[in-house]
């Protein structure tokens, strides 16, 4: 697969005859991407549900009889509500969002969180910034299925799926969903996800969010990677 590329957002750096596509929007994950990771939540959720680390939390919930799903959802929502109080923004968060607004780049969210933690983060740390659409746990199927990202692309009237977009996240679900949607992918590196730097679905790696400003100004150049989103 050819490396993903976008033309520089700085017009002065866009040479005559530059045929690279123009970036139209960026989709963000939430936990571990817009805010610092709160990975302890997953162990607490699995404990509340009585499942092991090998079992995907949402897959387990959706596998339950309908009458039991609401109770299971409330158990994991309770963990997320408790964690909201300790949410902290990622380094460079506001700077990147200000930059994207200055370049008229649309911003969306695709997360496996439920609405309350997302609303809390946006109202607390990004009150002046618009994200639309916001895809949360209520949307099915969740990542790593590309449906959420494709829904955002359609809402933005893009006829080429996610090919005009970048998906920014910190998990394999983010990378795989982005690749399957046709989007370029950016991994926000952390102590927990270094193994994804070389993943076949990861196009670019950054250490903090505002590193993307220079990348987008000068032109996005992804790695030469292959594969069809296998994990």
Give the N-terminus to C-terminus distance in angstroms: 17 Å
Number of strands: 8
Mean pLDDT: 92
Instruction: Report the uncertain regions.
Output: 227-231
Largest sheet: 6 strands, parallel
Shape: globular
Give the CATH H-level superfamily of the largest domain: HAD superfamily/HAD-like
CATH top level of the largest domain is Alpha Beta
Roughly what percent helix? 25-40%
CATH topology call of the largest domain:
Rossmann fold
Main structural class: alpha/beta
Strand content: 5-15%
Total helical elements: 8
Number of domains: 2
InterPro entries: HAD-like_sf, HAD-SF_hydro_IA, HAD_2, HAD_sf
Pfam families: HAD_2
GO molecular function: phosphatase activity
Organism: Karstenula rhodostoma CBS 690.94
Please describe what this structure looks like.
This protein is an alpha/beta fold and 231 residues long. It folds into 2 domains: 168 residues, 3-Layer(aba) Sandwich (Rossmann fold), CATH 3.40.50; 45 residues, no CATH class. Helix content is 36%, strand content 12%. The protein has 8 helices and 8 strands. Strands 4-3-2-5-6-7 form a 6-stranded parallel beta sheet, with helices on both faces. Strands 1-8 form a two-stranded antiparallel ribbon. Helix 7 links the parallel strand 5 and strand 6. Helix 1 runs antiparallel to helix 3. The two termini are 17 Å apart. The C terminus is likely disordered. This is HAD-like protein. Pfam families: HAD_2. One of its GO terms (molecular function) is phosphatase activity.
List the helices and strands and how they pair.
Elements: E1 5-6, E2 25-28, H1 40-49, H2 57-63, H3 66-84, H4 93-102, E3 106-110, H5 115-125, E4 134-135, H6 147-155, E5 165-169, H7 172-181, E6 184-188, E7 204-206, H8 211-218, E8 220-221
Parallel strand pairs: 2-3, 2-5, 3-4, 5-6, 6-7
Antiparallel strand pairs: 1-8
């Amino acid at each position: 697969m050819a490396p993903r590329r976008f033309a520089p957002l700085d017009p002065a750096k866009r040479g005559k005859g530059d045929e690279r596509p123009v970036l139209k929007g960026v989709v963000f994950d939430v936990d571990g991407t817009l805010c610092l990771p709160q990975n302890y939540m997953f162990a607490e959720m699995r404990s509340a549900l009585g499942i092991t680390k090998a079992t995907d939390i949402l897959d387990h919930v959706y596998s339950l009889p309908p009458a039991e799903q609401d109770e299971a959802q409330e158990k994991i929502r309770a963990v997320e509500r408790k964690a909201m109080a300790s949410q902290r923004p990622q380094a460079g968060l506001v700077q990147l969002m200000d930059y994207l607004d200055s370049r008229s780049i649309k911003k969306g969210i695709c997360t496996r969180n439920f609405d309350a933690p997302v609303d809390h983060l946006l109202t607390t740390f990004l009150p002046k910034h618009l994200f639309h659409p916001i895809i949360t746990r209520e949307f099915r199927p969740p990542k790593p299925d590309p449906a959420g990202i494709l829904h955002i692309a359609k809402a933005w009237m893009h006829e080429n799926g996610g090919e005009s977009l970048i998906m920014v996240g910190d998990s394999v679900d983010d990378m795989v969903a982005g690749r399957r949607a046709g989007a370029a992918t950016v991994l926000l590196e952390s102590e927990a996800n270094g193994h994804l730097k070389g993943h076949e679905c990861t196009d670019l790696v950054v250490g903090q969010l505002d590193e993307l400003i220079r990348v987008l100004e000068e032109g996005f150049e992804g790695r030469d990677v292959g594969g069809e989103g296998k994990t």
